[in-house]
Amino acid sequence: MAKQSDKKIAQENLRYLRNLKQSFLIVNAIYILYQVLYNFNTFTFWLATGYLVTIGITLFLWKQLVTYGSPKFSSDGSVIWPGEDLNSEGLIAYMFDIIYITWFVHITSMFFVWTWYILLVIPSFAIYKIWTFFIKPNFFSGDSAAGSDFQKSKRQKKLEKRQQEGKIKYIR
């Protein structure tokens, strides 16, 4: 039964990677054909630089996804390793999100130049995650003694109160 799930993950990964490659080629072909051939007079140095930087990031992330998600097959066609599940949460999902946001910006920037600012969502989200999960809890958590009362259960508070009053009964 475990081999069936490996086969399913391998097939899904191959499908995701194939769709990612096709979409990558389509989006970039549309952008290049429109900007370079049709609308070349508005294709400035900064737009070309932005496009090349974002295409470089997208290619890097695509290569990482191919490395993570490519299944390994034996000579008889059975799955040796299905690859990481590309449908999983976490870093892989963030990689897909960055690629999709970049494609969205490429397509919409053909009509509205200001959509390049949408790319600021990516570092803003990263800063938000770093702040909420690392910096704020570790460096700005406040006094630990004051916060400890909120973490104690009612039973613990009750036992501490009895202990301070000296009314603890011992059963033998």
UniProtKB/TrEMBL annotation:
- Pfam families xrefs: TMEM208_SND2
InterPro entries xref list: SND2/TMEM208 (IPR008506)
| Claim: Transmembrane is one of the keywords in the record | yes
| GO CC aspect terms | endoplasmic reticulum membrane; vacuole
Q: Which domain of life is it from?
A: Eukaryota
Intracellular or extracellular location(s): Endoplasmic reticulum membrane
Basic and acidic residues bias locations: 161-172
Family under the similarity heading: Belongs to the TMEM208 family.
| Protein name (database record) | Transmembrane protein 208 homolog
- For region Disordered, the annotated ranges are 146-172
Any keyword Ribosomal protein?
no
Keywords from UniProt, A to Z, are: Endoplasmic reticulum, Membrane, Transmembrane, Transmembrane helix
- Main location group: endoplasmic reticulum
What the entry lists under PANTHER family is as follows: TRANSMEMBRANE PROTEIN 208 (PTHR13505)
The processes (GO biological process) annotated in the record are:
vacuolar protein processing
Q: How does it sit in the membrane?
A: Multi-pass membrane protein
Annotated TM spans:
43-62
